[in-house]
Amino acid sequence: xxxxxxxxxxxxKGTQADIISAALSIPTLSTGAMLRAAIKAGxxxxxxxxxxxxxxxxxxxxxxxxxxxxxxxxxxxxxxxxLDGFPRTIPQAEALDKMGAKIDTVLDIDxxxxxxxxxxxxxxxxxxxxxxxxxxHSPSADGKTCDKCGAELTVRSDDKPEVVKNRLxxxxxxxEPLIGYYQNKGLLxxxxxxxxxxxxxxxxxxxxxx
Length: 210
Ligand code: AMP
Hints:
By secondary structure, the protein is of the alpha/beta class. Helix content is 48%, strand content 15%. The protein has nine helices and eight strands. A five-stranded parallel β-sheet has the order 2-3-1-4-8, sandwiched between helices. It has a three-stranded antiparallel β-sheet with strand order 6-5-7. Strand 5 (123-126) and strand 6 (132-134) form a beta hairpin. The model has no long low-confidence stretch (mean pLDDT 94). Adenosine monophosphate (AMP) binds at residues 9, 31-32, 35, 52-53, 56-59, 64, 85-88, 92, 158, 167.
């Protein structure tokens, strides 16, 4: 099954992607995580993406389309994949169509703007493996280190309130039009993202029939 997880920043896409990925044994392809890994490794891709990410702006379509095209071609995507954070613009969605991977479902996790800033302020990211947590909604066991690898948890620099505002503005202007794009294809399923992570997982399982 090829799934797109859609929704504003902070809607819980990463958390839900991890759960569905384990349930269906298919990988999550998070463009944000791939870009952060490239920045950490200091690769040319990372250097190209760094400025846009720190400002909460979008990385250029060409760059993200290139990394997704390469990643989708890998053998572990043969039985399906979950896209988290891609596509974010109409040109990205059109490029994805041309890659030949048929999308089965687009899950639109709906969370109002008021909740987003509160959610983002509590978000924590593992400095080593990139796993994400929330101080209230999905804390790590000790609140300080990663349950998966033991490294220290940090605040993402683009989760600062002023950058979050910018990211939300860009979401509404550039990414939200994709709702109509996928509605027209009959692929969109709306998920109420306001509940607890477990409640949202329940709604997603229902929508996917798993
Ligand atoms: P995320 O982890 O999905 O919130 O992404 C973090 C940041 O990476 C975004 O604010 C963008 O700067 C960049 N990014 C991730 N995915 C994309 C994409 N599909 N198109 C453009 N920029 C992206």
